[in-house]
Amino acid sequence: MRVDHAGLATEDATTMVEQYTGLFDCSVAHEESFDGMEIAFLDLGNCYFEVIEPREDGAISAYLDRNGPGIHHLAVETDDIEASLETARDLDIDRIDEEPRPGAWGHDVAFLHPGSTGGVLLEFVEH
Amino acid sequence: MRVDHAGLATEDATTMVEQYTGLFDCSVAHEESFDGMEIAFLDLGNCYFEVIEPREDGAISAYLDRNGPGIHHLAVETDDIEASLETARDLDIDRIDEEPRPGAWGHDVAFLHPGSTGGVLLEFVEH
Fold it and tell me: How far apart are CA B35 and CA A42, in angstroms?
């Protein structure tokens, strides 16, 4: 296991990317339009900040409406996402995704429910 | 630069540490009582999750009252925290701490104001 990224919800990815690359002297490792969102991964050296701007109604736009911009989730990389979901089940942690699904950057992802992880939206990622 | 940790605010550090160490097959790298908070750093391999439970009124208890438990901040390690604060000044990013101050685990820390970083509470850490 290792931390893959922290997901940051914003209404203005261009401004955030410009500010964060300057602040942390880092570069954009990957950009894509995915599932109604504009996404940029900033390479912080040991993991990424995923800057997410929604372009359509969905989970991120709902989050922004409810909470304003900020830290949306934390993603942990696993080399066996099915086994990680099984561990979550064994610990009685509610799963948003019962099975892995395609996520950004071509990775498989599965989210856990923040209601059973101390208010933290956690994502498993398998590259 | 590299990500040092994600800070998680909770009302029950014991439960969160037990759940997260099981979920991510990770261990507690460091524990301490610091500035009215019980703190545990979970070693995720490439960086840490800092589990923070307030025992006195302060920034974390105020955060919990306002937002409930969840992801409180992201900390980025720098080898020159004064230079990093200068970069923040140059970018017109408001600083909560104009000078480094002692933080948990004996590190120097300085926080930036989330109002000027897209709603994200960012911390610089120098080991």
Answer: 32
Which domains can be identified in chain A, with CATH numbers?
A: 2-126 (3.10.180.10)
pLDDT in tens, A68-121: 999 999 999 999 999 999 999 999 999 999 999 999 999 999 999 999 999 999
Are residues A73 and A48 in contact, defined by beta-carbon separation less than 8 angstroms?
A: no
Q: pLDDT tens for residues B31-41? A: 999 999 999 99
The answer to whether the Cβ–Cβ distance between B8 and A118 falls below 8 Å is yes
Is the Cβ pair B76, A46 closer than 8 Å?
no
Q: Which of residues 46-105 of A touch B (CB under 8 A)?
A: 46-47, 49, 68-71, 73-74, 76, 84, 87-88, 91, 93
ipTM of the complex in this document? 0.97
DSSP 8-state secondary structure symbol assigned to residue B11: S
* CB contact (8 A) between residue A118 and residue B10: yes
pLDDT tens per residue, range A43-52: 999 999 999 9
Rounded-to-integer distance, Cα A26 and Cα B46, Å: 17
Please answer yes or no on whether A76 and B15 come within 8 Å at the CB atom: no
